[in-house]
Design a protein that fits this description.
The complex is a heterodimer of chains A (about 525) and B (about 80). Chain A is built from 20 helices and no strands. With about 525 residues, chain A is mainly alpha-helical. Chain B is mainly alpha-helical. Helices cover about 60% and strands about 5% of the residues of chain B. In chain B, α1 (about 5-15) runs antiparallel to α2. Chain B is elongated and about 55 Å long. Classes of the chains: A mainly alpha (about 525), B mainly alpha (about 80).
Chain lengths: ~525, ~80
């Protein structure tokens, strides 16, 4: 019961923080959507980092390292450290400046003006929303699926499960079902975002980032201690038949696969929720700490989890690990026997999930309000207060739709495969945003060509990965195109279409270029 | 620092990410850290130092000036 009380205590702390930040809310739409463009260095770093890191950073990274070895860190974490900071520096600061100068709140507003095309806004809007929704689903389902085994055995009368075919009791008996666990998480996120807007999300993210960074390090320290220390833990892996190959990359992943993963973190350049966080910065100087600290912050979260995953390859019997995502929980349960640590790690996982969900709910509500309602009825049609309530209505609707879809799809085998496809889709749009801030010659036709290329190619590759019939050997394997991640041909094709068509068509007017370039 | 220096330094870092010479090395650095992991942990720290230098020597302060001087935002 101790771990359950820690989880409940953590969620109540979040509600309390929501109440405090609501008192700081100034009642204006600028405060609700972009925190009055007043966020300083530390809060920007914590909120952007919390938004970027999902539950995968703790649970998924451990499981992936167990399956694929130490190369997972180089492929996912150190690429992200280099590319995320580069995108924040090269694109984020410039979009912040354009947003501040012209008062933008969403990407569609910016692209519509930058390329003199209202149609572009309407074309881009559904693409962005459709790429965010699966990302939201993964978060809600992951939270529900995480809470159930964490609370298993606590409420056997309230949540009974039929026994297994061999007569043994079901391991999830008494656990809070995903429909209730996911619902509670949605309600808590809704509480602090609904009332406090992005200010509520920024403060909650700062708190949650501290929680999930600390719990990963604590779990690492406790597990290594119980394995006999760092050296003993790693030497046991080297001596194990299953674990030894996972200490290197040979045979675990291809070199082109390792290289082509660098295209995935380009997605941060087009995440609508990150765009909104960039706009909250008080000044360009606020970005400094984020750009500098991001690679080390990623290391602090990922390095302990990767090592735990590799150690698990030497400690756990592979026949007893049907699901790699359960490795972190198994290592804690088998080695630490501490309900306090189990509760703290549980809070850390929920923190990582919720710190992404809040910004995504907020950004979809902001987009529906400003790109659809305000766009159709005119900027002066609504008062500041009305805009806030319209946004609250949309946020409520988005949370409701996400929850219903999550319950409907919670047992689908493919939901968690959608994560990498969302990232790949956003990454394929990166050439557009990069060209928009650096290349005066990029044209409306070029952007449409790039968008269409991305949508068509993404759909073909997505179909091949998710719906097409696979051989037994292909099942469970990531789709690779000639040995590379699908995101690589996606970004290259999108960039080629953008450049070729832009060179052949008329660039925006001088007045527009003067508006966007110093 | 000129932008071209930052760009060249960035692509040197970019190239150093593909550490093929470490590919099959399972040596344990300090007795516990696999070589492929230790290299990339050190790489993460070097990347942070690179951005620290960029933030000190090549920060785009003109962008900030441009944002402030023309702000016509109702928000």
């Amino acid at each position: 019961m101790t771990s359950f009380y820690i989880l409940v205590g953590y969620l109540l702390l979040l509600v309390g923080l929501g109440l405090v930040t609501n008192r700081l809310f100034k009642g204006t739409s600028a405060d609700y959507f972009v925190v009055g463009r007043s966020v300083g260095s530390f809060l920007l770093l914590m909120s952007v980092f919390g938004t970027t890191m999902t539950g995968f950073a703790l649970v998924g990274s451990t499981g992936k390292a167990y399956s694929s070895g130490v190369g997972v860190y180089g492929m996912m974490a150190s690429w992200s450290g280099l590319i995320h900071s580069a995108v924040f520096f090269a694109v984020g600061i410039r979009l912040w400046a354009v947003g501040k100068r012209h008062g933008y709140l969403t990407q569609c507003e910016y692209f519509r003006d930058r390329f003199e095309s209202p149609a572009l806004g309407y074309f881009l809007f559904p693409v962005l929303v459709l790429l965010v929704i699966p990302y939201l689903l993964v978060g809600v389902i992951a939270a529900g699926k995480f809470i159930q085994p964490t609370t298993a055995g606590l409420f056997p009368e309230a949540f009974p499960m039929p026994p297994l075919p061999d007569g043994r009791p079901h391991p999830l008996t008494g656990g809070i079902p995903p429909a209730i666990g996911g619902g509670v998480i949605c309600l808590i996120v809704l509480f602090y975002v609904f009332f406090g807007g992005l200010r509520g999300a920024v403060w909650a993210n700062a708190f949650q980032t501290i929680v999930f960074m600390a719990t990963g390090v604590i779990a690492f320290w406790m597990i290594s201690k119980n394995l006999g220390g760092l050296k003993a833990a790693s030497e046991a892996v080297a001596a194990s038949e299953f674990g030894a190959p996972r200490l290197a990359r040979e045979g675990m992943m291809g070199q082109l696969q390792f290289f082509s993963y660098f295209f995935v973190p380009l997605s941060v350049g087009m995440f609508p929720h990150l765009f909104q966080h960039w706009l909250t910065a008080k000044s360009a100087k606020s970005f400094r700490l984020t750009v500098v600290a991001f690679p080390v912050f990623i290391m602090i979260v990922w390095l302990p989890c990767i090592l735990i995953g590799v150690w698990a390859a030497g400690y756990l019997d592979p026949a007893q690990v049907p699901n790699a995502n359960a490795v972190l929980g198994r290592m804690i349960n088998d080695l630490v026997h501490s309900p306090v640590l189990t509760g703290l790690v549980g809070a850390g996982v929920l923190a990582a999930i919720m710190s992404s969900l809040d910004s995504q709910f907020m950004c979809v509500g902001t987009m529906f309000t400003n790109d659809i309602v305000v766009r159709v009825f005119g900027r002066d049609r609504f008062s500041d207060t009305q805009k806030i309530w319209i946004a609250r209505g949309f946020i409520l609707a988005v949370v409701g739709v996400t929850y219903v879809l999550a319950i409907w799809l919670k047992d689908s085998a493919h939901v968690f495969d959608l994560g990498v496809w969302c990232f790949s889709g956003f990454a394929s749009l990166f050439p557009i945003v990069f060209a928009s801030v650096y290349w005066k010659g990029v044209t409306k036709a070029g952007v449409f060509a790039s968008l269409l290329t991305s949508v068509v190619l993404w759909s073909i590759l997505f179909y091949r990965d998710i719906f097409a019939t696979k051989t037994a050997a292909q099942k469970g394997e990531e789709l690779l195109v000639a040995g590379m991640m699908p995101v690589m041909p996606l970004v290259i094709a999108s960039a080629v279409a953008l450049v070729v068509v832009s060179l052949l068509t008329k660039r925006p007017s001088d007045a527009t270029l003067k508006k966007f370039f110093a | 620092m000129k932008p071209i220096v930052v760009i060249v330094a960035f692509f040197v870092l970019f190239a150093l990410h593909q550490d093929t010479w470490n590919w099959s090395d399972s040596t344990l650095w300090f007795g516990f850290l696999p070589a492929g992991l230790g290299y990339h942990a050190a790489y993460s720290v070097v990347v942070s130092i690179f951005w620290l230098l960029v933030s000190r020597l090549a920060w785009p302060s003109r962008v900030e000036q441009w944002a402030e001087e023309g702000s016509d935002s109702p928000h």
